[in-house]
Amino acid sequence: METNILKIITLADIASLANGLCGFFSIIAILQNNIILSAQLLLLAVIFDAVDGPIARFLNNNNLEHDVFGETIDSLADMVSFGVAPAVILYMLTGQLYVLVASVLIVICGILRLSRYNTISAFTDTPTTTFIGLPIPVTAFILAAFMLSSYNVTILFIVMVAISILMVTDIEYPKVKEMPIIAVVFILIIMAAVPTINNMLYRIPAYLLLILGLLYVVGIILISAYDNRKFNDKVQDITDFKNRLNKR
């Protein structure tokens, strides 16, 4: 078993480390009351998290030891950037004691979400097309979009509590793989994350990112509820049909 980190680490792992560092520096930024920079660093963390997987698949290491090593780095980086950082930032944004409820939920649900994901991955060989529960990067994605646009503290609190709970549900969220959608989101993130003098240059893409993020969160719930209702209606129709046959 190789123990030399310099021989194990790959470009994908460096992307994961960059993800974690962006999360760390986003906390530093909010402690210095730099809300815009903190939000932009969260968005950069989302980008690095999005590219580490494709880089790993492109390199195609086929090394079990490295797979475990890489997945561990990825999970720890995710917890820093999408669990701890949003929790700290959310509280620092408001300074309200009740907001700690949302911050605690983000940390607890984030840990549980990542633990479940790693457990499922360990016992699943075939690639899946859905996530069980809301993906944890959505926490930072939506928080950053709120920060870059005008936000209401109460609404932000409610949204972050809801997102935390959705992370540990059994609702299946699709993995977005359509290139046009990915390209649009990446362009918007980059536009929002690039430092600029003109506030509107990041506010417009921030509003669009917020809309896209909330559509992903809420839209899947509505679709899932509609599908469940259709399924229950079909079951009821079959039951009614059987009952009519039995009466004859």
Count of DSSP H/I helices? 9
| CATH class category name | Mainly Alpha
CATH fold-level name: Four Helix Bundle (Hemerythrin (Met), subunit A)
Would you identify the CATH architecture? Up-down Bundle
What is the first-to-last residue Cα distance?
71 Å
Low-confidence stretches: 231-242
Radius of gyration: 21 Å
State which percent range the strand residues make up.
Answer: under 5%
What does it look like?
- The chain has 248 residues and is mostly helical.
- The chain has one domain (5-247): Four Helix Bundle (Hemerythrin (Met), subunit A) (Up-down Bundle).
- It contains nine helices and two strands.
- Strands 1-2 form a two-stranded antiparallel ribbon.
- It is globular and about 50 Å long.
Please describe the structure with a list of short key phrases separated by commas or semicolons.
globular, Four Helix Bundle (Hemerythrin (Met), subunit A), 2 strands, two-stranded antiparallel sheet, mainly alpha, 248 residues, single chain, 79% helix
Which helices and strands appear, and what pairs or packs with what?
Layout: H1 5-8, H2 11-31, H3 35-59, H4 64-94, H5 99-122, E1 130-132, H6 137-148, H7 153-167, E2 172-174, H8 179-193, H9 200-247
Antiparallel strand pairs: 1-2
Give a short summary of the structure.
The protein has nine helices and two strands; from the N terminus they run H-H-H-H-H-E-H-H-E-H-H.
